[in-house]
């Protein structure tokens, strides 16, 4: 009988020990689920629904950025990552209505220059009128295959939603390499064809974009794809900046 009571006692103790362990595991799992739920909520609360065409803006953290309904004219992230400095000279290729040029002008100040290049004369005229009181923005008409600026003249070369239009891209990137200062940088904002269904014909595979640009003598130093959007940004510097 003594032996049976001992066995029974051990069984009860084992049962309570197992229940305690299960309770602990369950509590930890619940804590993890709650934590993940809050984390997901914090992420999704910052984004508009990508399928909602009425939403003209998304939120990425503290940044307010345009959706794929139009050019990403409000990407403060890009302006910040370019680390623009007063007095710098920028080439904005395919400047369009000059929305990027205006952002750049605010960063570089009165001593800097934004060369707002366009192949459409009417857009050039619109920019000249719009920026008549901002002399550091200089809209001009350029050829489709050449930015037509002097060598070693630009600190930053910027291309937004234009890369897929460029003819003979490798040679064009080589021309840009000559326009850039040895310490310059090239920023390309483009829809990623891999994730862009609606804009498939107006996008580029980023693997191809990077390969072509590096073939021209540039080196990729930064890449970021905006979560929930179709745009990515790639920043390159001249290969000559590396001692190898």
From TrEMBL:
Q: Where exactly are the transmembrane stretches of this chain?
A: 29-48
| GO terms for MF | methyltransferase activity
One of the protein's GO biological processes = methylation
Supply the alphabetized keyword list.
Membrane, Methyltransferase, Transferase, Transmembrane, Transmembrane helix
Q: Which InterPro entries match?
A: Methyltransf_25, SAM-dependent_MTases_sf
Q: Pfam families from the entry?
A: Methyltransf_25 (PF13649)
CDD domains in the record:
AdoMet_MTases
Per the record, the domain of life is Bacteria
Q: Which SUPFAM superfamilies match?
A: S-adenosyl-L-methionine-dependent methyltransferases
Q: Which residues form the Methyltransferase domain?
A: 90-184
Q: Which PANTHER family match?
A: TRANS-ACONITATE 2-METHYLTRANSFERASE (PTHR43861:SF1), TRANS-ACONITATE 2-METHYLTRANSFERASE-RELATED (PTHR43861)
Under what name is this protein listed? SAM-dependent methyltransferase
Organism for this UniProt entry: Candidatus Scalindua rubra
């Amino acid at each position: 009988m003594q032996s049976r009571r001992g066995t029974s006692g051990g069984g009860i103790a084992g049962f309570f020990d197992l229940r305690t362990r299960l309770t602990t595991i369950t509590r930890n799992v619940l804590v993890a689920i709650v934590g993940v739920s809050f984390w997901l909520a914090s992420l999704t609360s910052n984004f508009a629904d990508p399928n909602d065409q009425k939403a003209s803006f998304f939120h990425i953290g503290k940044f307010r950025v345009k959706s794929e309904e139009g050019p990403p004219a409000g990407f403060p992230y890009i302006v910040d990552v370019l680390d623009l400095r007063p007095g710098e000279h920028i080439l904005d290729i395919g400047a369009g209505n000059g929305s990027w040029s205006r952002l750049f002008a605010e960063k570089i100040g009165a001593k800097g220059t934004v060369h707002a290049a366009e192949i459409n004369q009417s857009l050039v005229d619109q920019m000249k009128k719009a920026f008549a009181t901002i002399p550091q923005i200089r809209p001009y008409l350029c050829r489709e295959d050449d930015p037509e600026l002097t060598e070693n003249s630009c600190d930053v070369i910027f291309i937004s939603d234009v890369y897929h239009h460029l003819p003979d891209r490798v040679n064009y990137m080589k021309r840009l390499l000559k326009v850039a200062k040895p310490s310059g940088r090239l920023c390309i904002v483009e829809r990623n064809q891999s994730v862009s269904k609606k804009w498939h014909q107006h996008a580029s595979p980023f693997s191809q974009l990077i390969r072509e640009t590096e073939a021209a003598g540039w080196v990729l130093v930064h890449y970021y794809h905006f979560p929930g959007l179709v745009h990515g940004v790639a920043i390159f510097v001249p290969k000559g900046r590396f001692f190898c």
